[in-house]
Structures are given as C-alpha cells and as structure tokens.
Amino acid sequence: VVLRTADIHLLRAAEAGDLIAFEELARRYEALVYRVALRMLGNPAEAEDAAQEVLLQLWKSLSAFRGESSLPTWLYRVTTNLCLNVVRGRRPTDSMPEEVEAVGASPHHAFEAKAKLRALTVAIGRLSPEQRAPLVLRELEGLSYDEIADALETTIPAVKGRIHRARIELVGAMRQHEWA
Amino acid sequence: MGVVDRDGGRLACGAEVGVLVDQVADALPATDPPHQASCAHCQAALRELELLWSDVRELASQDVVAPRSLVERVISRVRGELAPSVSELPLEAVVPRLVRHALFRADRGTTRIADAVIARLAAKVVEQVPGAQLLGGPRGTNVDVGEGAVSIALRLAVVYGASVPELTRTVRSGVIRAVEAMTGLTVDSVDVAVEEIVGDL
Fold first, then answer.
1. Cβ contact (<8 Å) for B95 and A31?
2. Quick one: DSSP state of residue A64?
3. Which residues of B touch A142 (CB under 8 A)?
4. What pLDDT sits at residue B192?
5. Residues 89-108 of B with CB under 8 A from A
6. In Å, what is the CA distance from B92 to each residue of A59, A160, B140, B143?
7. Which pLDDT band, with edges at 50, 70 and 90, does B109 fall under?
8. Disulfide: which of B95, B153, B179, B180 matches B191 by Cβ 3.0-4.6 Å?
9. What single DSSP character describes residue B10?
C-alpha cells in the first residue's frame, strides 16, 4: 500500500495558498535540487543559495503546473539552468576547483576510497559547464537521454555527444589519479 | 601503463576507446561481440573501465543531504512575500482551509480519506472514555496526513480526580485502534494535550 499525497494535490493546495502543502513539496524535493546544485557548483554555500532560488521559483510557478509536466523534470530543468547561469557568471579564476591533496601516504582503505571520490568530484568540476550538466544528470541522477534533452532544452544527439566527450575526459582524469 | 589513452584514442586492435567507455557507462551490448569476446585488448580495456566507472556509480549512490536551513529559509521568504497582502484580513479569508486526504493507490483507482473523517473518528473514541472530554470538537483536532501514515493531535479536558496518565493512555490506544482498524492507515502518533480540568474542585 502506497500512502503519499500525490504531488499534484500538494501543488493545487499550495497554489491556493496552503503553505503547509508547499513546505511538504519543498521537503520532498530539497534533496534533489540541492544535490544537482552541489554537483554543478561544487560548493555547499553556493549550492544552498541556488537551491533556495529554485524552490522560490517553484512557489512563484505553482500555477504553471497543470499536470502535463512532472515536477522532478521541471526541477531538473530549472536547477541546471540556474546553475549554468551561476557558473557562466563567474570570473575565469573562480571556476578552478581546489586541488585534491596527495593521498599516497595513507594506508587506510576508506580514506583512499574517499579520496578517489573527491578526485572524481574535482574532475567533474573541471568539465566545461556544457559537459558537466548532462553528465551530472545522466551518471549521478540517472536520467534518460530523452529527459536530459528536455531539461537542457536541446536535442538527444547533442546530449549524447556532450556526455560521450565528458566521459572520456573523466576516464582520463580518473586514470591520472590512479597512477599518481 | 593502462590500456586507455588519455585522449580516448584507439586500442591496438583498432577498437575505439570512446565506444567502450559508452558501453560500460550505459551498460550497452558490444557493438562487435565476436571481436570483443576474443580480443585481449578489448577485454583488458573493459576491465579497467569497469573498475574506473565503479567510482562514478559509487559517487552516484552517495546520499547528499540538503542543509537543514534550506527549506526554513525558503518558507520564511515565502511568508515575507505573503505578509503585506494578508496583514489586514483574517487568515481564513486569504488562505482557504483545504481538505487534505490520506491517499491509497489500488490497481484500479485511488481511495482518499479526508482528514475530517479521521478527526471525527478520534472524537468518537474520546466520547467513550469516561472522564475525558474533547476540546474544540473535531475541528480542534489536528490531523496531519503524511507519507504512509497519519499523526493526530487532540486537546482534552479531564474530570477532576481522574488519573491523567491512565486517561491519556486509554484515549491514545483507543484512537490508534479505531483509526487503524477503520481506515487502514498507520497512526504515527497521537499527541494529547490536557488543557482543562472540569468538575468539582
């Protein structure tokens, strides 16, 4: 038995001014929005600001939902667009993620595993924003090519091409880390 | 040295590394199965790529928790935007009280139970407990329909001389029994507030 008020009921209630319904929606999707923002921006403070803007956008766009577009799809689109604007607005020097410190000294397995994931996160942060957005949606969020094309307002071949190049970049970066 | 070139490139057998990367990442079938099955270069590259890509899968499976302040900040900004328009009007006039429903999905339709129904049930239970009276009626009872369950908060007056722990225990277990038996909902909690005492003091 699934017991969960459907998004559409909460959306309707929120649109009519029910703040509790809106809060429930915000709580339901805060993790999705924050996670994508964090992967796109690489920085918790900026990610929180971006996520806050997205959820406010949701409040202002409640009347736009008539059931034809699913809420997660809309949130993916708005979050990636907003983050792309943030990234593009940065000065060139801001966009370099911090270096990962050398990890060879530690024999501790968990630490090395963690360092590997940090190196991967940094490598994702070094991708161009145009490659990073579809890669994050595909590999970390598990969206289909179709859904990604929809979120990024582009075509499926364009998405496939950007993800393909992003993956090759990442494999190169991960191998460099392995062999460092 | 590993088998995968930094630029994507080709393996010694001529296979494109980029194609193998997509094969691993999207879990696709090989484009040239007979070649791949018998080619040592392809096999070695696939093994290495699987290993590298397992890091990506691990990162994807990591739980990212949004900061606690996020939704609170959003709600307070939303309230701030609402404030000017609601200041002169009673809240009910601006924000209609909406019926909330507990929702069950079945194969061929849904069942919805309005929160007022649950509140009435709770009121009925309290009526049958000697020494306890419901304050505010079913409307004074707060029913929170959440994911998979319902929480109920009610306000009571107790008769002088009654044992409050015993009364609240009876009310709580009675409400849980009645609501769960009649609606099939799980009752998460029944919060009881004793707010009045009645009878000869």
1. no
2. G
3. 60
4. 93
5. 94-96, 98, 100-105
6. 20, 51, 15, 18
7. confident
8. B153
9. B
pLDDT tens profile A128-168: 999 999 999 999 999 999 999 999 989 999 999 999 999 99
Mutation site for B-interface testing, chosen from A48, A138, A167 by largest number of B Cβ within 10 Å: A167
Give the three-state DSSP class for B112. strand
Separation between Cα atoms, residue A136 and residue A142, nearest integer Å: 8
Q: Which residue has the tokens 């999207």?
A: B26
- Per the document, the length of chain A is 180
Q: What is the pLDDT of residues B182-194, one digit of tens each?
A: 888 889 999 999 9
- Pairing assessment for the beta strands B149-159 and B186-198 based on DSSP bridges: parallel
* CA–CA separation, A37 and A47 (whole Å): 5
User: Distances in Å between the alpha carbon of A84 and those of A19, A94, A121, A145?
Assistant: 29, 14, 17, 19
Beta B101-106 vs B109-114: how paired, if at all?
antiparallel
Answer whether A175 sits within 8 Å of B52, measured CB to CB: yes
pTM, two decimal places: 0.63
Mean pLDDT of B60-83: 87
pLDDT of residue A104: 41
Across A121-159, b (16+ Cβ under 10 Å) vs e yields bbbbbbbebbbbbbbbbbbbbebebebbbbbbeeeeeeb
Winning range, highest mean pLDDT, from A135-139, B90-94, B95-99:
A135-139
Band of pLDDT at residue A93, cut at 50, 70 and 90:
low
Structure-block tokens of residue B90: 């009673």
